[in-house]
Design goal:
Elements (H helix, E strand, L loop, with lengths): L1 H14 L8 H7 L7 H21 L4 H25 L2 H17 L1
Helix pairs in contact: 1-5, 3-4, 4-5
Length: 107
């Protein structure tokens, strides 16, 4: 289960080029794009959250706590990338990712 959560962190980091590129999913969610299928986007995102919550459950977290941890993980990932962009400093993202990895090791 830790490895599954680690893959989520690693792939997000790779996708946003270690904090140097925006997350298109976040941009689409915030924009008023008519070409975007918002319900499909919400379903996909919910599926990712559920997968991560299940991994936290497999580590022994009760279901509600596992969902809160999954929510926090995604909030942290998206928050770090937003802060990095606002500060024009990808190191903000990198530091946040390192923090998440340390927290994952302690589980």
């Amino acid at each position: 289960p830790k490895a599954r959560i680690g893959v989520v962190i690693d792939e997000f980091e790779r996708y946003v080029e270690h904090g140097r590129a925006p997350c298109l999913l976040a941009l689409f969610a915030l924009e008023n794009a008519e070409v975007l299928d918002r319900p499909q986007l919400a379903r996909q995102f919910e599926s990712w959250l559920e997968d991560v919550a299940q991994a936290f459950e497999a580590l022994g977290e009760p279901p509600k706590a596992a969902r809160r941890r999954a929510d926090r993980l995604f909030a942290d990932l998206y928050g770090f990338i937003c802060l990095a962009a606002l500060r024009s400093d990808p190191k903000v993202f990198t530091r946040g990712i390192k923090q998440l990895r340390r927290e994952l090791k302690r589980l």
